[in-house]
Every structure is written in C-alpha cells, then in structure tokens.
Amino acid sequence: MDRDENKLARAVKVAVIGGGWAGLAAAVTATQRGHQVTLIEMAQQLGGRARTVETPEGGRFDNGQHILIGAYAQSLALLQTVGVDVGTALLRMPLRLRYPTHESLRLPPGPPLISFARGVLAHPGWPLAARLRFLAKASGWLAQGFRCAPQLTVEQLCVDLPAIVTAELIAPLCVAALNTPAPRASATVFLRVLRDALFSGPGSADLLLPRVGLSALLAEPATHWLKAHGAEIRLGTRVQTLDDQPFEAVILACSSGEAARLARPINPAWAATADGLRFEPIITVYLHCPGATLPAPMVALQDDAASPAQFAFDLGQLDHSPGVFSFVVSGAARWVERGLSETGLAVLGQARRELTWPKSPTVLRVLAEKRATFACTPGLLRPPAMIAPGLWAAGDYVDGPYPATLEGAVRAGQAAAAALN
User: Which end of the chain is less congested by CB atoms within 10 angstroms, N or C?
Assistant: First the structure.
C-alpha cells in the first residue's frame, strides 16, 4: 500500500492503545492512510502475546511458539511493509504432520484440491478405507461451502471419521488452530480455518515457522517503521480513562479485559460482551540438550493425562538456539491448575519417552500465557469492532470468522484503521 495514494482528505489524531500484533497492524495501516498516530503500550515492549521475553539470568525466550501459514496473506503483507524479508525470517515448508516414529499427513506442492487428495491417498500410516472415508468427508464439507450447524463442536462434526484420522489429524489441527480441544471447539470456525488453509490457493496450507525471535519478527521492525514514518510510541503507559484524551479517534487494541474497562462508561453492552469471553491458556516448555535434533523442525505429539504437549519444535533447525527445543501445550487449563513446575516435569518425561536423545534433556524454562486465546466454542458471542463513533476495538477476539490467531489480530487491526474515515 502506498501511503500517499491512500491518504484521506482529512488526517485525524488517532491513539492506538495496545502494541500487540493487532495494535501494530492498526498503527501501520493508520499511518499509511495519513493519520497522526500515537501507539500506547502498557508494557515496556511491543509484541503483546507474540513477543520475546528476557529472563533475569539473561536468557531470551519467545512466550509461545507461533506458527503462520501460507493463507495468512495480511500478516505476510504487514511483515513486508515494515521491511521484513519473509523468505529469510520464516522457514516455509508444505504442511507436514511428522510424529516421532512416523509420518502423518503431508501435502505435496500443487493446486489445493489435487494436493490435498494426493496427500491423503499417499498417507503411509492410514488404512485405505480410512483415507477414502476422510476424502469423502472433506468432499462433503467442500460441497457445503465449509459451513455447518453453528451449535456443532469439532468432535461432533467428525464423529463418523475413523479414529486414527481424528487422533492424528483433526485433534492436533483443532487445538493448534483454535487452542480449544475438539470436544469443546466450534466446528464452524474450524471449517473456516480448513477452507482457507487447505483450499484457498497454492501454498495456502504451507507452514511458516519463524527463524527469528518473535520480537524480531514484527515488533522491532514495526517500531523502526512507525518512528521513521512519524508515529509516536509510548511504552510503559496504562491509559486510565478515555475522558479528555487529546485524540479524535481511538482504537482499543489491548486485551478484551482492558478494552472492556475503558469502553464501559461509553458502551456498557459492548463491555459486557467483551467481559463474557472465556480463555484458554498455552504453556511453552523449553528443554535443552546439546547436540540433539528432532526428526523434523516441527514434530506432532500425542497428548494424554501424563503427556501435556501436542507439538515440539527444534530451534536449532530453525536457525537459532541449537540444542534448544520448545514443547507447546495448547488448551492447557488442566496443566495450569497442576502448576508450571509439574507441567515442565511432565513434558520432560514425555520428551524422554517419545523422542531419542544423546543424553537426558533438562528443563530450561516454563512459560505460560494464562489468557492466550479466547475459548473458541460453538455459538460464541464476540463483541463487534465498532464500540461508538470514533472508538473501535481491534484484537483477535472481535467478531469475525477467525479464531484467536496472528492473522485474526492483524486483520482486526487493519479493519479498525480503515474504518477511521
């Protein structure tokens, strides 16, 4: 987007409150459109729930292992706008679910429908009847426009699929995309994610794994871009009230709780809807084992009562932190209740059981985002983007087709900025 071509007839002074991916997207888009932007962040760094944190000992860890996919067109465009070389910063590879001992679904390059059919039919571990049944089921979803009854859960949607397909594909994809276990996850949102990921164009299902820390991926280049284009950034500042703010428009790109607090005097009904959201945590356990590697940069795992993690990432294969591995526990409410220390030990035991190591790994760090995403359940009422004239919300929780993903956050930020006129 060219800034000069998209300037409005009248630029306005706009505050973007919150510096996560939604706030950064809103600030960049508003700046491109010629507005005078002030970005206000309560924390001492930008990035929100997708950032790099420093430990007291001097270590640097991402506060979660975020994945992009090829269908995330707006996120990729935002990265390019702020000067990120996405080919260098992201490892791009076709969708591949690799378990420690065997391959699961792996999509070859090519047109989406053909690639999907070839990948399913070539699956080495599923019986032919299971492969054909899954293709028939997916064809039915396609014929119905990837729509279903709004009250259905993912488990109900897939109740007639072979157990091996559900266990090795549906369950891990659901918890990875929605951060909500299949028995409670919205089938409507899940189908939308499948549609865009698997069938929206060549490469849409590709996995894009960050080769750099999350702060280096967006927050840091966006900071440089915004300052270079005249935006003001205020860190360590919590906005107490929207009264008497010296701005003509405000975008609330903070958490839903903070947005509800600020919006309540203006629109109590909107605030009540935002406050009504429930959340799912994510725990990331970092293990250290010098000289070790995983079978692939990303490995899927089977979780159960004793094994918390659904995915493991080899950060050495992602061109940083050799010998360091991140294990991700999505939909982690029961593990949060058990405590981070116990979760770390449980992941360590799972890693020892399921993977091969030259020597026993050790726990480096356990990080938790207790409100990582909203619980994406059937019939969920999400607050709209518009709160009042001149006041908009931007976040992955606002009403829209996507779950709480980076792409959902970016699109919400861009939409709020575009609505300022």
Answer: N
